[in-house]
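Page 42, continued from yesterday. The earlier attempt failed because a stray header line got pasted into the input along with the sequence. Redoing it now with the clean sequence only.
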Amino acid sequence: MLLLFLLPTVHVVMARMEKPILVLEGAPGTYSAGKVEAALNQMGYKGEIFIVRSEEDLNKAWAKRNKYAIMLIAYHAFRDNAFLRDWLAATSEEIKSWVYDIGGTIIACTKDAEDDPLSALFGLTKISVPPEVDEIPLTPNTPFAAGVPEGKLSSSGGFCTFAYSEPLPNWVQYVVATKDGYPAIVAGKYGKGCLILGPAEWTDTTDAYKPGTEDWDAFWANLFDWIDETSEWVPPPPEVYTKEEVDRLIEEAINRAVEIALSSIWPTPTIAVAFGLFGVIIGIIAVAISAIALRRR
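This time it went through. Structure tokens are written below.
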């Protein structure tokens, strides 16, 4: 087991933390509900943050997933939310493609049994570690610990009861290991995107060791800094419509045009006036539809 030292110190540049981020948090009342956005704000995150709290939120966000650079899966999100588990099972290949082809980044703790499908999707297998292992040293000059002198991520019990088994998949470039050498967090480039996954409770924002603590903040700032330098994600055009949205817009435009045409010629309709107004309106609709279709995905 090697802890890799391949990058020079990465300076914290908070302004880089501004890419659109999709947070799978879960329904109100679940473990992480209402906590992730506050933690990101505490860390100085400046980008758009969309929080998924329901199946409706998820469907809306996933339909336009290419607009998000990062997907942060909240601690216990899959454990506490059946709709998220169902989504993971049904869209696993789409998730892989979003990372590999689009350049998205996934950040997740994978401690729970319900997280295992996500780990398996990227070739990772979880194992138990001895109960006395409960901290992750952060050594200076490593990718996610730059500027953290002899720091550590730790808690009062249960922080790191699982790790990943070796050999690790080929996409893994960097390993943050426990003091006994267990792979607690792994990271690497996957196609155009990035993966940062780990069975330790490193994404738990409710522990005493949380955002607002110097070592923790520096760790996360450098993590986002690495994503910014590594991911090939580029923002899509300003307006992105799905096929279903285009179909709906066309239908609404046609219905509205008919209403306008009928109200304009009533109560003294003539064939010439009717055809004239209707022709003008249809021409306007055709231009609008062409503009929409050019942006359809």
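Notes: The two ends are 44 Å apart (CA to CA).
Reminder to self: strip header lines before submitting.
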